[in-house]
Design brief:
Elements: E1 2-7, H1 12-24, E2 28-35, H2 39-49, E3 53-56, H3 59-68, E4 75-78, H4 79-87, E5 94-97, H5 105-113, E6 117-120, H6 124-139, E7 144-146, H7 149-157, E8 166-173, H8 183-186, H9 191-194, H10 204-212, H11 214-227, E9 234-238, E10 244-250, E11 255-259, H12 265-273, H13 304-315, H14 319-335, H15 343-354, H16 363-383
Parallel strand pairs: 1-2, 1-5, 2-3, 3-4, 5-6, 6-7, 8-9
Antiparallel strand pairs: 8-10, 10-11
Helix pairs in contact: 1-12, 4-5, 5-6, 6-11, 6-14, 10-14, 11-13, 14-15, 14-16, 15-16
Length: 385
């Protein structure tokens, strides 16, 4: 039996992970859940999956949940320390890291230090502190299994292959809702338009990141750390059909691609059942119904955040953590209607320009850079209103 703790159980990935576990049957058991503050949903999850422990990062929400769960066997924890308890449960074999943004970094690191297999859906963990995370995982021989569809695709294509035989990795991107829009039209983007992704159903923050293409930039950084490939050997192609989830080109010119339907349950199931494959939870891909597969190079002028992410990945140090924090804060402002769509780029650019780089940072220096960037981004957002 595989025992699983889910960090971010009320988000899109967490909900789909629970659907996968339910479909896989008695060989999989949920032992821990962590979320932010969605009491109504977490109670439903507790009643259905009977975890040993639950944590809410919001202290008030956790206190309410504890009252409502009085008399039950489930342990209720709160705050970061509570999430760390769930991430390090002695009973857990696999920890699904699916908390949005920087919040997932410390719990994921703690899980690694307690020798838990990591099913990684939170790319920000590697964006912020990839070198530290990979170093810790290698030292403890902890497996990090990618849940992002693109990285799962590459992981599958690389199975039993020598990494030295790889020429480049090719990450595919749907292009979001705006890849055909003109630069002038992008200035008019509304929140509802940015959240209307053409192929994937995701959380609000990652959907906006997909619209700016910064999400693909984060995936470049993630792939660099996960697979030990230089940033210059990672390419992005716009693939509107989202059927080819990513590709690997080898030194002999051969290309391996992983294809599938656009359903996050597929890579989630692969990570949980690895190294085996289980019966499908999603519909099968019908090649007869595919009208075509198109690929385009991204327009870095229209989507400058992708270019910034590539540059940031090459520099490293504390810069990726600053990029991530500035983006989280800027996207929050956009979703709140405080700034315009293209202001996300302007804010991030100004914050990056103000940052004093630390080349080989400690974990504390990374966290300091994260906190600094959030404060400065808010200042810059207020100044331009």
């Amino acid at each position: 039996m595989k025992k699983i703790a889910i960090l971010g159980s009320t988000g899109s990935i967490g909900i789909n992970t629970l659907k996968v576990i339910e479909s896989l049957g008695d060989d999989y058991k949920v032992v821990g859940l962590a979320a932010r503050e969605n009491i109504g949903l977490i109670i439903k999850q507790i009643k259905k999956f009977h975890p040993l422990a639950v944590a809410l990062t919001d202290e008030k929400a956790a206190a309410k949940l504890k009252k409502q769960m009085a008399g039950t066997k489930v342990e209720i924890y709160s705050g970061l320390e509570g999430v760390k308890k769930v991430a390090t449960l002695p009973e857990a074999d696999i920890v699904v890291s699916a908390m949005v943004g920087a919040a997932g970094l410390i719990p994921t690191l703690e899980a690694i230090r307690h020798n838990k297999t990591i099913a990684l859906a939170n790319k920000e963990v590697l964006v912020m502190a990839g070198e530290i995370i990979i170093r810790e995982a290698k030292a403890r021989k902890v497996a990090i299994l990618p849940v992002d569809s693109e990285h799962s695709a590459i992981f599958q294509c690389l199975k039993n292959e020598n990494i030295d035989s790889v020429n480049k990795l090719i990450l595919t991107a749907s292009g979001g809702p705006f890849y055909k829009w003109s630069s002038r039209k992008l200035k008019t983007v509304t929140v509802s338009q940015a959240l209307n992704h053409p192929t994937w159903n995701m959380g609000r923050k990652i959907t906006v990141d997909s619209a700016t293409l910064l999400n693909k930039g984060f995936e470049i950084i993630e792939a660099h750390h996960l697979f030990g490939i230089e940033v210059k050997r990672i390419e992005v192609l716009i693939h509107p059909q989202s059927t080819v989830h990513s590709m690997v080109e080898f030194v002999d010119g051969s290309v391996l691609a992983q294809l599938g339907v656009t359903d996050m349950r597929l890579p989630i199931q692969y990570a949980l059942s690895y190294p085996e494959r289980q019966e499908r939870i999603v519909r099968r891909l019908s090649f007869a119904k595919i009208s075509g597969l198109n690929f385009f190079r991204p327009d870095f002028e229209k989507f400058p955040l992708l270019k910034i992410a590539c540059q940031t990945a090459g520099i490293g140090g504390t810069l990726p953590a600053v990029l991530n924090a500035a983006d989280e804060t800027a996207v929050e402002s956009f979703l709140a209607g405080e700034i315009k769509f293209m202001d996300i780029y302007k804010l991030i650019r100004r914050v990056l320009d103000r940052h004093k780089l630390i080349k080989n940072p400690s974990l504390e220096e990374i966290l300091d850079a994260d906190r600094w960037a959030r404060v400065i981004t808010k200042e810059e957002a207020c100044s331009q209103r």
